[in-house]
Amino acid sequence: MELERYSIINNKNSREIVLLKAFPCEWGRCSFCDYIEDNSTKEKEMVDLNKKVLSQVTGKYKVLEVINSGSCFELPKETLRDIKQVIKEKAIDKLYFESHWMYRNRLKEMEEYFGIPIIFKCGIETFDNNFRNKILKKGIIFQNPEDVARYFKSICLMVGIYGQTKESIDKDIEYLLKYFEKGCINMYIENSTSLKRDENLIKWFCEKYAYLESNDNIEILWNNTDFGVGGEANV
């Protein structure tokens, strides 16, 4: 099926969201991710598709989230120009982008280019260093959550992968609430990768942390298409 690429989030943190195509993820080694199959090297095709998706933006909430299967720095330059034009035409005053940790020293480039506040989201997934890097293959090394918070106001966590522990998830939630302005918690959905979903762990999380649904700064994705974009890519 085709990926859904435009949606409107009407509840907390109301905004429009677009899923764009980009060049291959510079990291591209996360063991749980198969969305990188949506990446491409055919620049004209990507740019043309992205123009069509961006043409749907109305400016309804004056807030736009742009995601792609990787980092915002891997979007074609022409697409970045198109986003900037949409921001101007639709009077967008806040932008959400995703970025891998490797780009942490380049975030100001985007802020200066677009000239509006940007909330950068980083997929930390977990603060358990062993699980994050040896199992999930994230390639993200830091000393403590304060190191991450110096660069990113928002992080994404992953819950429900077989091998995770309740103790590590408790610590992840503690750090999220203590050090970050916003966060997104994703329940793991099995895909074409070999990692398995732990239903018991997700049930435990739901019972213990469902109260976070009432926190305006925390979004929980019980399914990875809950924002209205994504799906199963045609490859």
SSE string, helices as H and strands as E = EEHEHEHEHHEHEHE
Estimated radius of gyration? 17 Å
Main CATH class: Alpha Beta
How many domain modules?
Answer: 1
InterPro entries: Elp3/MiaA/NifB-like_rSAM (IPR006638), rSAM_sf (IPR058240)
Organism: Clostridium grantii DSM 8605
GO molecular function: catalytic activity; iron-sulfur cluster binding
Protein name: Elp3/MiaA/NifB-like radical SAM core domain-containing protein
In short:
By secondary structure, this protein is α/β, with parallel strands linked by helices.
List the defining traits of the structure above.
235 residues; alpha/beta; TIM Barrel; eight-stranded mixed β-sheet; 7 helices; catalytic activity; iron-sulfur cluster binding; Elp3/MiaA/NifB-like radical SAM core domain-containing protein
Description of the molecule:
Helices cover 30% and strands 19% of the residues. By secondary structure, the protein is α/β, with parallel strands linked by helices. The protein has a single domain (6-221), classed as TIM Barrel, CATH 3.20.20. The radius of gyration is 17 Å and the shape is globular. The mean pLDDT is 94. InterPro entries: Elp3/MiaA/NifB-like_rSAM (IPR006638), rSAM_sf (IPR058240). GO terms for molecular function: catalytic activity; iron-sulfur cluster binding.
